[in-house]
Backbone:
């Protein structure tokens, strides 16, 4: 009983996740490959003050960017302190806590919670992809176990490209949702995501216990801002996209327009235009990965462009090609930043 009360009290300290634009931040490094906290703070506040509902980053082995346990937890503490000092105490932090085993994932979630994370995000272990693919019950049990052992709510992250090709079906995800009350949502970065969204939205709508059994709203999140408009129309709750790192104002403007209860014809057309531009940019940004993101942020803001080795900085020719592909989006961002006609744009006027 005492344990249950303690867990309940601790849970109340966590900031619940909300529908919105979720921004996964890259980690910046200096010339000695150490974390560049000064640059990280600048970028963190640049996004958080523009209305990003969440600041998400990966502390798991999947990222191959932050190696030591101490770095992982110290970065969470740094983010929480930075947000609190800026008056952003209600901005939640999600940490990637997917490990190579059930035991390790639970340990990572516990460490993230102690450091100040409000939720965790878990992708399937890529190393065991072949074995896990032979029996989906293993996948279901994995999420049931880690949700039961985690002191913070967890998001299920379906991203086949970074999980050894493992692509969870809507049936498997539905089974996890029903059996893991500490699961607070799913993020789908996979083929056929709209179809999965429709099926999962129907499942959660038809089973009232899914939300009534939780202390937080269950979220269905897109992994790409490229299809945010149809995602929202099909019952989704937002996106976790890397693109807001480049275009936070445009991303938030699209979010605001999509959430208008009675948009005017001009607003509908504006949303369609922004969505088209961001979709074209996303098509170029996703294949570029972290190396391309670092290159672009270096050109835009002067941040260090080097990822942590073994990854190397993008070559100039590749980088310039990437920047050219995003030029339309950069111009859109500049236009929205300089506009005085949209006071509802978060922090961008």
Residues:
């Amino acid at each position: 009983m005492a344990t249950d009360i303690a867990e309940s009290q601790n849970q109340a300290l966590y900031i619940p996740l909300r529908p919105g634009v979720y921004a996964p931040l890259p980690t910046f490094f200096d010339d000695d490959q150490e974390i560049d906290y000064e640059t990280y703070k600048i970028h963190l506040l640049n996004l958080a003050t523009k209305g990003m509902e969440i600041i998400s980053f990966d502390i798991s082995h999947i990222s191959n960017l932050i190696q030591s346990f101490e770095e992982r937890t110290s970065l969470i503490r740094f983010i929480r302190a930075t947000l609190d000092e800026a008056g952003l105490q209600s901005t939640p932090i999600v940490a990637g806590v997917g490990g190579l085993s059930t035991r390790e994932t639970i340990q990572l979630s516990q460490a993230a919670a102690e450091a100040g994370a409000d939720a965790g995000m878990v992708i399937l272990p890529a190393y065991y992809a072949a074995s896990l693919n032979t029996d989906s019950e293993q996948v279901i049990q994995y999420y049931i176990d880690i949700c039961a052992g985690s002191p913070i709510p967890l998001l299920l992250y379906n991203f086949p490209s970074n999980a050894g090709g493992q692509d969870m079906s809507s049936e498997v995800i539905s089974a996890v949702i029903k059996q893991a009350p500490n699961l607070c949502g799913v993020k789908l970065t996979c083929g056929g995501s709209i179809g999965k969204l429709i099926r999962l939205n129907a499942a959660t709508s038809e089973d009232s216990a899914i939300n009534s059994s939780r202390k937080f709203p269950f979220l269905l999140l897109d992994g790409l801002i490229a299809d945010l408009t149809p995602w929202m129309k099909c019952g989704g709750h937002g996106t976790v996209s890397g693109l807001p790192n480049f275009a936070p104002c445009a991303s938030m403007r699209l979010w605001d327009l999509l959430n208008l209860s009675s948009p005017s014809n001009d607003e509908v057309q504006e949303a369609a235009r922004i969505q088209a531009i961001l979709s074209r940019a996303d098509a170029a940004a996703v294949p570029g990965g972290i190396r391309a993101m670092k290159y672009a942020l270096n050109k835009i803001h002067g941040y260090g462009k080097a990822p942590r080795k073994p990854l190397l900085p993008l070559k100039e020719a590749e980088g310039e090609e990437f920047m050219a592909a995003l030029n339309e989006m950069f111009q859109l961002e500049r236009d929205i930043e300089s506009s005085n006609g949209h006071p509802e744009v978060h922090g961008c006027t």
In short: DSSP finds 14 helices and eight strands in the chain.
